[in-house]
Design brief:
Four copies of one chain form a homotetramer.
Chain A: H1 2-10, E1 22-30, H2 35-45, E2 49-57, E3 64-72, H3 76-95, E4 98-103, E5 108-114, H4 119-129, E6 135-142, H5 148-153, E7 158-160, H6 169-179, E8 185-189, H7 197-203, E9 207-211, H8 223-230, E10 234-241, E11 251-258, H9 265-288, E12 292-295, E13 298-301
Parallel strand pairs in A: 5-6, 5-8, 6-7, 8-9
Antiparallel strand pairs in A: 1-3, 1-4, 2-3, 9-10, 10-11, 12-13
Family (chains A, B, C, D): Belongs to the PurU family.
Keywords (chains A, B, C, D): Hydrolase, One-carbon metabolism, Purine biosynthesis
GO molecular function, one term (chains A, B, C, D): formyltetrahydrofolate deformylase activity
């Protein structure tokens, strides 16, 4: 089992659906006429071919501008520094915009935090193994040992960090030691612990959570019980970036499923679990492909 | 135009999809073994043929029992009194259950309240005209004259009852005069006024409202603006019975539609309007066919 | 009624959601590096601000390239000729690409063909009246007089062109006389007649049809009866461009709705009708906003 | 790993969501007045409490009648023979109906056939392990060894039966030896082999297949390539009972997902795979809970 996983990881990126010599470029900042032309002129000037381009302005008059471009260029690794330099000069300097350039053949590294339930975790591990998610998973961290064997069967390291009791500082310190320098983002795959503001800041990478309701309905704990109590006809799930404000972070993706009076709270939980894993997998895929741009309390998603 | 509508209304019920000699029977109360057998034995004893039967118990051990049965029997009108008497004796008397028996060939009468926007109103009028809703519409009441001509083009009476200013008592008194004895239920088709508790009680008939969000998210006014502000990826609508507690009444039906960062608040409103009319039409159809049973803060919907 | 419609039509485009001084530009042809940069440089050179840009290549290596750009520029009407000239030189000449430039404040003109059923027709008329479709409707043509009054109540001219019997040439000749020079596209809103290849060619404008199944399932007549016979759990609808090959034209949009064993063929038809009108309205909106590009047997839809 | 699975299987049925002392009763045949009353009277006479009752008649006048009843009775195992005898007399004898009675605490035994792809297989194994499917899985059979380790990690026996070459008779003989007496139904979880009519007959149990298109569109091999070729905007999957007529068996469940011009055939396959596993899991759950009744080329699904 682990041997298969290892072999798969050894395949060159192209074999796993990640195109060689492709890069993503995110540009955002204050909108002005001429940005798209300037960006594409830089890329064209370096012999790059634009593979896809998505652009959005939240207000043509003085709003914010967002652009995601995927381009290919031969010998990308060699050319990236000079492309970056041109963008710094013409796009950052000329227009005062922020930009981020990334070699798409280098998958992002994600740490997954889980607790006892494994539906979201397994879905992510399975999709990664089958090449549906362009990420590597250097670690799964859990406050329970239940999923250890399952995680390791995918060839993924599992770390057990107990987190009982009200003081989470020791657990969070251990988390930070494990994460430091090893990951590009974190996914909370039904990790049933609240992260401290200090942890979020010190982690220094984006953290994606899956909440088991269609936020902002049923904020907080026990959403399925609340949904049953209120008698709703839909239950859902929300993937969002984690911020200091619990359940208030920018929403990446949401979906719902129809339920009826005949469904018990346990049925809602079972049906909701299918939505949770689907929503979280989409959010992780989009984030890993630089399709999500955070902007204040919102996200721009070029899906 | 009105002549067409009149001709349609003159058609016998069977021509409009309402089966002759069919009745619905709703039974509910405390669950006990033997209820279904007792009810079906009564119907069978009167020569009735069960066309459909839906049954639900929210807890087999001492919970609440709900049953909807549609049956046919020759000469229904003549037989209903004796069937009712048997049910009173065997079902109400024997089991202590409530029941309601209704000749399905007699459509329910609904008053529609509207304001300026006509999407929900027009959908109901159109479906009623085409025989998709087994109701008659003796009146549309509005606090604005805008939709008068449209309503009358369907051959439906329109009453303009202004409702400006904080004191709604005169308007509500006029509403009660118009409704008294003339309707079996009321539909608020984006009627942008809050009804007083006194009105709800004195109206004495079920009132169905369409709320433009997937409740309980975005309770109160301006849900689309709130949805835009929160950055949700779905907007929706909720049809519910009106109670004293604003936006808290039992939910009949809900649905959502996917939106994106590129949609403005106006786009959300436009896309939501399609969901609103679909959700409200389903709720009205189900209510008119006795498919919805209220139970505390919930509904049982045998759709 | 007609007075209201007239007043609405008199409103300036901006009031109806059509932005003043905005144009759409479609570019397509063989893919090569540098197209996006060249196009945006032309626009930028004329002082245009790019409002949105969608781009797609069906194969980065020698495939076909498609780009839809919406831009704004002050005094668009005056500037269009010189922008067109630059595009001819740099984009058509330099890259051998086709392009189409259109002032978005000039709505497309659509003729709607209908028969007896009015659900699709009414939905289009209503959305146009409420500013949801950026089109004008100079005429509705039908082979039955049933919907005349309804159409005229929207202030839209209605023409009755009987089409009984096997020889449609007289009817089609009349259609061509009515359409000539007056419309930019045609919509068949459940028009239950097959158009001849000659008519399609001589009409010389795109024709959009709504087929009442999720093509390619249930090609031909009577799809709901076939769906009932086959026992499917979903019924749907397909909007497509009309070609000589019946039900084989490029698909613009499709959707489905869940049905069950309990639904009769008439129920399927009723539930399908809701899907038909939704699918057709989306297709018409996208076509009217230049969001659909035909490419062989396919469409590129920048929705 | 296997130890966990074993422990789970050792739990009493009630702990896995299968209610003790509950039975399902399916009744079907020619419709006549009084069936529901007769069936419920038999159950009531034996002290049974009806937990749920679904009933359907495809034509009140001389059509076919279908009823699914779940009831509870103390000491079910002891009482079943006498209840069966009463049903034989009163329902089979009195009305000429077929019936099937089953103790719901005894899970059905299913053999899963798989090939190389594991998305449907894994979903079934995972749901069974988590108590979402009330079945036991005595064996997985595959014509490829790829999924052996994964299957065995769930504590489920795996049998490798090669099936290369045109003559499948040896493989099918081996299949029949493995199945004989050991299973109640078979699931083809993307088993990429066509079963002979003889095998289907000799297996003697229902066989459920997942087809990777929304049948009847794209019958036969390569549906995703055909879908890409046709330019559809939805792809889907269909779970159906296997009959001699390939892809023509009674449909149990279908669903679709939206795709766009930008999706490659590989993307369609990836997105379709999510629908396949969801549709197949629902079909297996419904079949295992006696919610599906076959009737000619159709199914009645009391979901």
């Amino acid at each position: 089992m682990s041997s298969r996983a290892t072999l798969l990881a050894d395949k060159p990126p192209a074999a796993r659906g990640i195109a060689r010599d492709h890069a993503s470029l995110i540009v955002h900042g204050a909108d002005r006429p001429g940005i798209v032309a300037a960006v594409t002129a830089v890329l064209s000037g370096h012999g790059a071919n634009i593979v896809s381009l998505d652009q959005y302005s939240d207000n043509p008059e003085g709003g914010a501008f967002f652009q995601r471009t995927v381009f290919s260029v031969p010998d990308l690794t060699l050319r990236l520094p000079e492309i970056e330099e041109s963008l710094s000069e013409r796009v950052a300097g000329g227009f005062g915009l922020d930009f981020a350039l990334r070699d798409l053949s280098v998958p992002k590294r994600v740490a997954i935090f889980a607790s006892k339930s494994d539906h979201c975790l397994l879905d992510l591990l399975w999709r990664q193994k089958h090449g549906e998610l362009a990420v590597t998973i250097p670690m799964v961290i859990s406050n329970h040992p239940d999923v250890a064997e399952e995680v390791r069967s995918f060839g993924v390291p599992f770390f057990y960090v107990p987190s009982a009791g009200p003081d989470k500082s020791a657990a969070e310190a251990e988390h930070l030691r494990l994460l430091a320098g090893n990951v590009d983002f974190v996914v909370l795959a039904r990790y049933m612990q609240i992260l401290s503001a200090e942890f979020i800041e010190r982690a220094g990478v984006p953290i994606i959570n899956i909440h088991h309701s269609f936020l902002p309905a049923f904020i907080g704990a026990g959403p399925y019980a609340k949904a049953k109590e209120r008698g709703v006809k839909l239950v859902g799930a929300t993937a969002h970036y984690v911020t200091e404000d619990l359940d208030e972070g920018p929403i990446i993706e949401q979906d719902v499923v129809r339920v009826s009076h005949g469904d018990t709270a346990a049925d809602l939980q079972r049906r909701g679990a299918d939505v949770e894993r689907a929503v979280l997998s989409r959010a992780v895929r989009w984030h890993s492909e630089d399709r999500v741009i955070r902007h204040g309390k919102h996200t721009i998603v070029f899906a």
